[in-house]
């Protein structure tokens, strides 16, 4: 049956009025955002969205995603929404020309109108059964509240957003469920996904808040809460292995030439957004990178497991200073063997604990290495490749491989431990 124009009493085909709505095809570049906004559990291959769902009646740069009449409550965007009173305020401006209203009258009858509905009179008219109403009623019964179910549908998706396999992420969520914050409306799975996405992709807060349809203040609360709780819950994943376990899991490359190795240590740095405070700027400046950085010590078992990660230090700190103050020396026992890079001049502090230090050979005064030293250095380099891979796996989380926002610096100690724990949740580094 052909629909009729309610104004001109003729069919839509004959009427000169513009069509009441238009359909817009979902672009591939914004597929995840549209599916999350529409909450389509089983989306078809081709998705068309009615113009009623867009702020500007179509996707625009400012409002590229569906935002209106979605069948669930969305956070109010106070900075972008304008509301206009239906009744003008009666103001008396002072005679001196200051332009300050002396009095305003607001009655109980004063009404407020959302201007986003001004161009949709046919959608507001009583008795008109619009496509919007039908869409809201049918979708409301089938929509689920978890954005993570739309974003994580395979291991590929899970690796992209979390750096973990999908099953591992699901197990992680179940383990951390006990840290639920009852004041937050998002599901625990969504909250944990948002937090890990901040670490994995280093997304800005505004981007995350729009993707999960919450305000920036709520997104900030979620990330702050879960950084604290994830660090607490994942702490057991960073453990110093007993000697027996280290030997039982030692790869063949270590067993042949370095069978007594307890751990391999190295320092890594992440570029830090330049602090405003001059003292902090000086303490964090790294001459090696010519940037402000944070620096941290990583202790890795021969099998590739991260057994220790220090707190974050300023880039100015030396490898020896961090080794002495990080707490790693408390784990070393007489007879242990530590492998390090030539920058770790820590013979004296390890000798006191009767711990052997293995370093690549280096020359002094322009001399040449002996054949035995060259062979030893090559063997050390071959096994240290695995350590570099472990650090690269740690830096899969872009919060460590990109510029660290200065507002995240107070949480960096916990972020380092979380990233190390998440790296340990992946498959064995060395096989």
Any overview of this molecule?
By secondary structure, the chain is α+β, with helices and mostly antiparallel strands. The protein folds into 3 domains: 123 residues, no CATH class; 89 residues, no CATH class; 186 residues, Nucleotidyltransferase, domain 5 (2-Layer Sandwich), CATH 3.30.420. Helix content is 36%, strand content 10%. The strands form 3 sheets. Strands 5, 6, 7, 8, 9, 10 and 11 form a 7-stranded mixed β-sheet that branches. Helix 7 crosses helix 9, helix 8 crosses helix 9 and helix 9 packs across helix 17. The longest helix has 24 residues. 27% of the residues are buried. About 16% of the residues have low confidence. InterPro entries: HARBI1_dom (IPR027806), Transposase_HTH_dom (IPR027805). Keywords: Metal-binding. Its cofactor is a divalent metal cation.
């Amino acid at each position: 049956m052909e629909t009729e124009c309610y104004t001109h009493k003729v069919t839509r085909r004959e009427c000169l009025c513009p069509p009441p709505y238009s359909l817009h095809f979902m672009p591939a570049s914004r597929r995840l955002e549209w599916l999350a906004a529409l909450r389509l559990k089983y989306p078809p291959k081709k998705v068309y969205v009615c113009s009623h769902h867009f702020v500007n009646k179509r996707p625009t740069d400012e409002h590229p995603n569906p935002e209106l009449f979605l069948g669930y409550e969305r956070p109010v965007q106070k900075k972008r929404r304008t509301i206009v009173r239906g009744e003008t305020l009666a103001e008396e401006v002072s005679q001196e020309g200051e332009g300050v209203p002396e009095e305003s009258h607001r009655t109980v009858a004063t009404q407020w109108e959302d201007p986003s509905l001004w161009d949709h009179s046919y959608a507001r008219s009583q008795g008109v059964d619009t496509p919007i109403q039908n869409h809201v009623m049918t979708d409301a019964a089938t929509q689920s509240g978890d954005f993570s179910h739309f974003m994580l549908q395979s291991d590929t998706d899970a690796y992209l957003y979390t750096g973990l396999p999908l099953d591992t992420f699901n197990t992680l969520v179940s383990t951390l469920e006990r840290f639920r914050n009852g004041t937050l409306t998002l599901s625990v799975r969504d909250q944990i996904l948002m937090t890990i996405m901040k670490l994995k992709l280093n997304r800005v807060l505004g981007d995350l808040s729009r993707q999960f349809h919450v305000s920036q203040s709520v997104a900030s609360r979620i990330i702050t809460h879960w950084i604290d709780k994830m660090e607490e819950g994942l702490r057991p994943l960073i453990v110093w292995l007993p000697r027996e376990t280290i030997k039982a899991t030692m790869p063949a490359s270590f067993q042949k030439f370095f069978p007594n190795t307890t751990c391999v240590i190295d320092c890594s740095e992440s570029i830090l957004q330049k602090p405003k405070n001059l003292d902090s700027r000086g303490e964090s400046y790294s001459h090696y990178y010519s940037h402000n950085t944070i620096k941290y010590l990583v202790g890795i078992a021969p099998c590739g497991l991260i057994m220790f990660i220090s707190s974050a230090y300023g880039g100015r700190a030396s490898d020896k200073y961090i080794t002495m103050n990080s707490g790693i020396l408390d784990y070393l026992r007489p007879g242990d063997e530590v492998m390090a890079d030539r920058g770790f001049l820590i013979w004296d502090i390890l000798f006191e604990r009767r711990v052997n230090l293995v370093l690549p050979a280096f020359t002094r005064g322009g001399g040449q290495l002996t054949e035995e030293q060259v062979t030893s250095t090559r063997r050390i380099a071959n096994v240290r490749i695995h350590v570099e891979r472990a650090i690269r796996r740690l830096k899969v989380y872009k919060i460590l491989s990109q510029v660290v926002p200065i507002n995240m610096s107070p949480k960096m100690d916990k972020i380092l431990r979380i990233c190390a724990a998440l790296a340990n949740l992946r498959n064995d580094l060395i096989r």
